[in-house]
Specification:
The protein has helices at about 5-20, 60-85, 90, 95-100, 105-125, 140-150, 150-165, 210-215, 220-225, 230-245, and strands at about 170-175, 180-185, 200-205. By secondary structure, it is mostly helical. The chain is globular and about 45 Å long. Bound molecules: manganese (II) ion.
């Protein structure tokens, strides 16, 4: 072996050793991260606080896994990627970025709108779902009665609005600081937060939220989804909205 190629080999070996010796960065998310781990960065996929099969037969485990571990994870990974060249995205509160979405530069606006919108929407979505979610009561029920015509009318109107949303999107209940509720829909991953509003709760009507189990039967999914709502969490968010502390 010539001294030149030996030198190359030694250099290469030293490089490998340096990489192997580099400290492994461990993120808090690692224990619950999906198989395709998101890029490191300021945005974190919130782990589900319940098992993925807890909503069966209303939502199947496979749909929950793909929805959380792949779809939501992709929005988070995309935000971490864009935050590498736009670090202010990682240091500004999410609701402030979304609330001023049109102030962003044109070269990042579209990506942030879709992916940070998706991150906010899904973070809310997992939060307001839970096993044995009970029924609305207290101030939330009073607001539903006052502003939305009672629980039955509210659920029917919410389902109808979700059914009318053409293509991908969301159906939300927005809440003002005075506690007033309204049903609103948005396309894609848009959020009422982009209009300076706050979201009490919402349902995802993208096909990825239901297609494995329901195929084209979105109306059946919308009806069944109510069995997954965690009303205690909705009440917490309602109180936070009135206190002015509700973010995403
Ligand atoms: Mn979704």
């Amino acid at each position: 072996m010539s001294s030149i190629s030996r030198r190359h080999l030694l250099t290469a070996a030293a490089g490998v050793a340096a990489i192997a010796a580099a400290p492994r960065v461990v993120f808090a998310q690692a224990a619950t991260a999906p198989a395709a781990a998101p890029a490191a960065g300021p945005f974190v996929l919130p782990p589900l606080t319940y098992a993925t099969n807890v909503f069966e037969p209303h939502i199947d485990a496979k749909t929950m896994e793909i929805h959380h571990d792949k779809h939501h994870a992709a929005y988070v990974a995309n935000m971490n990627a864009i935050a590498q060249t736009n670090p202010q995205l990682g240091t500004t509160p999410i609701e402030d970025i979304l609330g001023n979405i049109n102030a962003l530069n044109d070269n990042i606006k579209f990506t942030v709108r879709n992916n940070l919108g998706g991150h906010a929407n899904h973070t809310m979505f997992w939060q307001i779902m839970g096993a044995n979610g009970g029924k609305p009561d207290g101030e939330v029920l009073a607001a539903i009665d006052k502003d939305l015509g009672g629980l039955e009318k509210f659920q029917n109107d919410f389902n109808a609005a979700g059914g009318r949303q053409f293509g991908s999107g969301w159906v939300f209940v927005t809440v003002t600081k005075a506690g007033k509720l309204a049903i609103e829909t948005r396309p894609n991953q848009d959020s009422p937060i982009m209009d300076g509003k706050r979201v009490l709760m919402g349902n995802d009507v993208w096909e990825h939220a239901y297609y494995l189990n329901y195929q084209n039967r979105r109306a059946d999914y919308l009806k069944a989804w109510w069995n997954t709502v965690n009303w205690a969490k909705v009440s917490e968010r309602y109180a936070a909205a009135k206190a002015g502390t509700l973010t995403i």
